[in-house]
Give the backbone structure.
Amino acid sequence: MTWDLILQQTVNGVAHGMSLALIALGLTMVFGVLHIINFAHGELYMIGGLGLVIGMTHFHLGYVPSLALAIVAAGAIAWLVDGVGVRPLLDQKDGHSTVLLTTFAISMLLNEGALAIWGPSPVRVDGFEGLTSFGPIVVTNQRWFVIGLGLVVLIAIEFILRRTHIGKSVRAIASSAYAAEVVGVNVRKVRTITFVAAGALAGLTGGVMVPITMFTPSIGHNIIIDAFVVVVVGGMGSATGAVVCGLLVGLAQAYLSTLTSEQIGSAMVYGLLLITLLVRPTGLTGRGRA
Amino acid sequence: MLEVNGLTIRYGPVRAVSDLSLVIKGGESVALIGANGAGKSSVLRGILGLAQAGGSIVLDGCKLDGLPAHRRVLSGVALSPEGRHIFAGMTVAENLAVGAVNVTDDEQRRLADEMYGLFPRLFERREQEAGSLSGGEQQMLAIARALMSKPKLLMLDEPTLGLAPIIVAQIVVLIENLTKRGLAVLLAEQNAEVALSASDRAYVLETGYLKRGGASRDLAEDPAIQADYLGF
Amino acid sequence: MKSLLLILLSAGVVVAVPAAMGGYPYYMGVAVYAVVLALFGLSVNLTVGYLGYISFGHAAFFGLGAYASAMLTSYLGMNYWLTLLLAPLPGALLGVLVGFASLRVGGAYFAIATLTAAEILHILVNNLMDLTRGPLGIRVPRPKIEFLANLGIDFYQYYLGIGLLVLLLVVAGLRRLLASPIGRSWAVIKESAPLAESIGIATLRSRVLNIALSGAIAGLAGALFVPRTLVVTPELFSSGLSATGLLIAILGGKATLIGSILGGVVFAALPEALRFIEEYRMAIFALLLLLVVRIQPNGLAGLMSFRRRARAPEVATATTSSDLMFKPGEAMEVKGLSKQFGGLKAVSAVSLRFEPGETVGLIGPNGAGKTTSLSLISGFLAPSAGEVSFGGKSVSGLAPHRLARLGLVRTFQHTAICGRLSVFDNVLAAVPNTETVFTAIRGGQGYREREARRRGLAQAYLSQVGLSERAADEAGSLPYGDQKLLSIAVALAAQPKVLLLDEPAAGLNHTEARALASLLKSLRERGLTIVIVDHNLKMIMEISDRIYVLNRGESLADGSPQEVRNNPAVIEAYLGTVWNKEGVVHA
């Protein structure tokens, strides 16, 4: 493996890792605030990609307006998922396990539905074209965009959580939903907002990654286990864990792809999930909630 | 200020409180005493809207029953819950900020300053993580957090639990100061002596029923209270 | 007599159905598919419906079975029909692994883990070309049975017949197993694992057994599928198949055997009926799963009220409650028990002693550490320091179910009973037993006698607490006071030498508390050692021989009820500084 290859894969890995970090962040936030695992989260990523593709190929919008469409589409579907499969179940006795089933069913519904309506053939769309080179290392502008936008989004989320009232309410609920209710936070509303925001974030991520990976209805299905790996290894409920682990897993996958096939690389990463669950369920950082 | 009529609270098959009625005036502090499991906490939770409750609850002319908890807080009820439940990962200042529902940013700053005035220890620790505070400081924080919503009625659930006598004394003084400002205070306390010294009137609860009530000074001399607690 | 009839009936079905469908190979193919799906659905149901663990990766077991059978047939030349005996093994082994994993991770993590494991297998099978021929799959020739073919019987006829035979055998075995102590353990674990531990059920072993069995049955289904598909591909590990299995189990009816069979039939027939919208098939399945979970969680079987009605217990060899005496146990000693949570000392150097036959109260104001102490003694919390010994032997650090088997049984503050089981079945589940899968399925005279004895014991404990009349009622429908009594009956059935009661009077009104007190007094008369943590001091004073008082995690006082209630330190702990005002009368 040459130095150039390592550097190139590092660049690609950072971009890929950024997307994993964003997806995992949404997943872990939903867990931290609602205490549920949304199995349909990967499909919201796919819906974002689908929104982008429809915006560009059907409505002939530019990339950025289509990206906006991706965000809105994913957020809207997330709102439906919350209303049908999550919110009514949270107060029930066995609610949390039932939510597993409903979100699993919805993920299948979205995946197979998109497959049936759209068809399996990959679709290519262009985002930001062009590239910059540093000697033999090539960075496509789309990848710059992913990394840059990712950083902006992460900073924005951090700002919202730390400085705004809604952000503090979110953190309060994650710390103690009971106390939050006691002090007058509208817990139900904030939970729904968190869920929809996480969905919109996933959709945005889909919209920025599709120009790199191409769109098929299966991209959600393919990415959800990666997201689980990141969230479990990073610690369920830990935002830092999600981001750090997302980048690490992205890099790991990029490096592995030079050594072995993509599928085997995935299998190794999935194996990491199983090992983590058996050995240290609270994640590497130890801050996750089992 | 607060009028409760026929309050009945159930948790699933268990009836925790039966047909309870009480009245609290502004500037008054009232204590609920009784053994554990008597229903004191449940009454407070029922008034805030955290438990399934039947009966009517009226605060300052405003009907509370049927409203969800966050609306009741907006109407002027606040609770410092049993066990404090402060937001451990957030700073003291942030804890206060979360409690400031329905207040503008400026008002929030002014209120926070007021709290710091009442609780100087909290001011010293305002950027510290709440989880690292001592038990007494956490209790102060829980009360301050409750006061940030500018309540008309402040409810305190077992505020002296596990605290050293010197802190307990501070809490008793605090309650007196708060009532002097016109706040109505409802206090649920297992420790009868503390409760009766911190209140004007008190009610004794037993297995969900109001057993007796009266001026705290009178109850403090009543041998029946000892019997109520120690079971004979 | 009844079983002979059933055997004849089953034999009849196995022969008659294929015979009747003779000229319709197409429909026989669908029927075989239904049998395979029914078996698969049963395997998923066993874990999801009966044990309460949601698995998203059952296709892993199915695929392993199919590949095992195909590889044995195709590579080693074994007779296909013999592979049916071996093919379940890899599934069972994976099930054992997964079962052990369930110790660490419950609920959502278990679902993620199973999904991931299936994906890993999917990828491995797809890529280990040398072993599995990858996406091309392994071809298996149609496994003819010569002598049956020579008799003029069509392939699909004996294939279907054998399939039905396998299905009926599995169903029969499962029925027996589910009605046995093993099945009852699963029901309790599903409701509450701590409850199961407290009455002596080794929850880990029980879970491993369930999932291994489930894996074996799914593997069997996969193997049985081979002659229908004739080429096994990695697609058999897909999450779509796992979802189908889940849907069959849930749509048919969780925790009902007939439901999975119905589900299998429906799902085999559906694709044929929905052939014209083949592309939307999985999407429709997903929608169905969502609708069923939201609207009718009991599935089809629930619609038809197929839920087993609780059998009123036969009062056969009734060990009458008057015969119920408790063996004198040994003394129990707690020395220097401490528990620290981070910086908080919940319990600090507490020492207690319980003599056989005593009733000891453990009291103290809120936050005194009483319940924590109880959890420490009963093995539910690990102590930071200190030792617990029973009859001279140290029992510190033993798992709760081991302690229960030694005679230390506890109840829970928030009454844990299996709401969906009958009152009688709740108690029966706690009676100790040493049955294995084999003895349970085999049955026989010895087993029946042991079952009858257990049922008699359960009946006796039920009448001891006064709930005999409600034996057949659903436990969740009992009023709260009766639920408390039931939880005590359950604890008694576990044959305790020392009974630890955690706030048994909480939530009870005067009448119910009186009934509880008189029950505890009668238990004391029969020689049971009882330790009670409670706030109802009136009751505690009435029934205790001795009382320990805790305050702020430390021992404060101990002695007779009289001594304790007059102890100034105790009065101060509860009421404040010495309640010694003028005019106050000390009792």
